Write the structure tokens for this entry.
Amino acid sequence: MIDLRSDTVTKPTEEMRRASYEAEVGDDVYREDPSVRKLEEKAAEILGKEAALFVTSGTQGNQIAVLTHCRPGNEILLESDSHIFYYESGAVAALAGVQTRTIKGDKGQMNPADVFAAIRPEDQHFPETGLICIENTHNRAGGAVVQVANMREIYHHANAHSIPVHVDGARLFNAAVSANCSVQDFTKYSDTVQICLSKGLGAPIGSILAGSEDFIRRARKWRKRLGGGLRQVGIIAAPGLVALTKMTERLAEDHENAQYLAKSIREIEGLSILNSVDTNIVVVEVADLGCTADQFVEALKQKGVLAVTFGPTLVRLTTHYDVTKANITTAIQAINELTKEVIGVN
Ligand SMILES: *Cc1c(COP(=O)(O)O)cnc(C)c1O
């Protein structure tokens, strides 16, 4: 099987498994796990923040950010297809008691003027705007990169209104590699950032939430409240450190493979590419084949390639380090065969 469902399917490398085996550990709730401390210090340094916190997942990192920044009854501003709004089971309402105000973006990027217009003035009728979230890269926009200039403009305005900005940077390293800049070029226009170690970077488990010392101190308490205070967790922090320090540059390879995949699919009759393919995600429109995304994904599976549906007639393919260029060639052949069969039937 060639698994293009997500970059979360990556398995830990040998080096990660060895790091896990050899990791020095202690009780991290007592702050006595040296491997976790090392990971958190390194992550803070790379992300250009004072401090960082190791959390179990991207969702937990985002939720802790909202819980720490906001109070119940606040309103948060975020893109209408953002992960926090679309894919986190309504957690911000269930846990933080905040309401969401979504802003339709273009390729995942919110127009700064729309964001500014949505900031609530002081009035007893209104909720207070407690947080602005920016997702980079933007998952549902097909891994689109939100430009540094866009983040800068939103951040400066938010700052002037004393509203914090959180970056859901599950794939922020993909954005940096694609834009040929450092992650700090993005994170300097944020108060806090969440990055996933377990997507393209290949770690088995975990995310990082980074921000100021004071923010992370309060975030640590929220992590404990959510049951995320772990013990000898160096076992999973050690492979996370390998992911963070050794796996970021190679994302360029995944982006090249996505380009190759997209270019080949564009040449196939009945299929078109919907996204700009800035990074490792390719979104395919299958409507012209006269089939649904479900049917397409099922038929593709029969040919040994796994993908996910991304809408009634949309299919998402994601490249990652467990698929080689040769695998992509095989996947393209399978897609080609499949479309010929489908067109033959209709
Ligand atoms: C995957 C993802 C998350 C959540 O990560 P999990 O570890 O699956 O909880 C958050 N935001 C974005 C943009 C993502 O793609």
